[in-house]
Amino acid sequence: MNKKIQSALISVYYKDGLKPIIKLLSELGVTIYSTGGTQTFIEKLGINVVPVETLTSYPSILGGRVKTLHPSVFGGILGKRDDAIHVQEMKQFNIPEIDLVIVDLYPFEQTVEEQKQKASSTGGGLEEAVIIEKIDIGGPSMLRAAGKNHKDVLVVANKADYALLEGILKGQNGETSLDQRRMFAIKAFDVCTAYDTAISNYFHQLSIVTPFNKEEKAMRYGENPHQKAAFFGNLSELFDQLNGKELSYNNLVDVDAAVQLIREFQSPPLRDGGCTFAIIKHTNVCGVAQRATVKESWDAALAGDPESAFGGVLVCNDIIDKSTADAINEIFFEVLIAPSFNEDALAVLKSKKNRILLRIKPEAKGQKTEMHRSLLNGVLIQATDEGNFSEWKEAGGRVSTAEEKGDLSFANIIGKHLKSNAIALVKNKQLVGKGCGQTSRIDSLRQAIEKAKQFNFDLNGAALASDAFFPFDDCVKIAHAAGITSFIQPGGSIRDKDSIEYCITHKLAMVITGMRHFKH
Question: Does residue 219 sit within a domain?
Fold first, then answer.
């Protein structure tokens, strides 16, 4: 059955190619309803247009989130022209028939891609608020309504179909056939399906709760051989694997810890000291140092704990050269991650076929915005622990020196990436002792001091970072006796004054950060 188009609702994001359609509808005597920017566009063409607000008696509200969601609009689209009750109700409530709906949708996928490119260039995260506002509500609703009522209404959901619409309007003098309206309805539902899928995929990528859009990769086993395991994700978005066997469950856990740590040293001020090299074992840092060259940073990181480095995951924020590769090649390690490798360095490192070499992609440098942990019968989600300190309050017996400030800041970041209770001892931008995962902060401190002694480090003038406050002055006393002269901690204990007063009495530097870095 042919239908004559006598009224049209037009609300589009992109105006390209719309001008000839508008003029043709005007020549055919079609009443045009519109909103916002589209209404302004039509008015500038000198063509009469009826604001949707005259139908709804409401202006665009909530920052444009609500414009067309109203019975006067959807009644005009959904009303069945051959149903006496529908016709009577439309007349009773002054709802006009709408015969043509031209609507496209907010550019959700384009906005996500733009945000990814911006995040890649700045090293930041996605601006989720910007993305959320590009989730169209009224548009898909109007497309579905018009598609549902295609017996009476023609719906156009894509500017690519404007030429087809123009040909129909010209060739049929504003009339459309049922087959034509059904064809356009199918196109509209396809547009809505693709749009909803893009939105669903975006939210799946933010959460491990529903990872069904992710690539599933079965693993040989989990943490132990008797545990089944799988990985949902796409590692190729983050790394190019240049050599080695497939990453195991435990490899992936350590690689994640390594990447999170090295990201701290990608930009000033922690990048200013030069190259940083770190060694990760069971997600904890066992060696890390910052030096002028890659080779020097590797040597210093390894010296921090050469025993624990065996079988570890190595990560660097600079290009691996041949001299460094020759040195690294002397020990057994599982994975090496770096932004780039010189060709002669790769030749050395590829000498062992199972050794995993990962080149981290530049666009993968952005910080994660959320962390997830499955437990009990659900999942915990929290924002990532971003930042080093929220304040720098010199609370000790003297102000820290420039060299101590550098070591304290460095140590505080390392402590952030150690399991609690965490103590990091740093001297000259080198981790010289660490204690982690202990049930007592004193035990962690004793462990850190013993580690330093084991590898013959001189702790005189070293800096100490604690991931949480000192509830008493015992840790400060023990550390001072070992030669440590500067401390950094978040503060917040009701007995902060105990450790502060000890530092004041003994002329030790103590910085209060106001930011705790627990890692359970």
Answer: no
Give me the helices (H) in 207-317, please: 249-262, 294-304
- H/E stretch holding 30 reads none
- Please tell me the predicted confidence (pLDDT) of residue 213: 47
Which residue among 23, 148, 151, 506 is the active-site one?
148
Cα separation, 100 vs 10, in Å, equals: 8
Catalytic residue among 118, 282, 419, 506: 282
Locate 197 and state its tokens: 């899928």
pLDDT band for 214, please (50, 70, 90 cuts): low
As a whole number of angstroms, the distance between CA 50 and CA 61 comes to 18
The CATH number covering residue 359 comes to 3.40.140.20
Which two structure tokens, joined as six digits, stand for 41? 């566009």
Strands (E), 423-491: 423-426, 431-435, 463-466, 486-489
Note whether 146 and 77 are within 8 A (CB): yes
Residue among 446, 445, 508, 441 at smallest CA distance from 470 = 441
pTM of the model as a whole: 0.61
Closest alpha carbon to 182 in 194, 174, 190, 173: 190
The answer as to whether 451 is a domain residue is yes
Tell me if 398 sits within 8 A of 508, measured CB to CB: yes
Alpha-carbon dihedral of residues 378, 383, 384, 385, nearest 10 degrees? -120
Question: Can 148 be counted among the known catalytic residues?
Answer: yes
Contacts of 1 (CB under 8 A, 6+ apart): 151, 177, 178
What CA–CA distance (Å, rounded) separates 421 from 440? 7
Residue 232 in any domain: the answer is: no
| Low-confidence winner among 10-24, 206-220, 383-397 (lowest mean pLDDT) | 206-220
Q: For residue 450, what are the domain limits?
A: 393-512
DSSP β-bridge partners for residue 285: 280
More confident residue, 382 or 468: 468
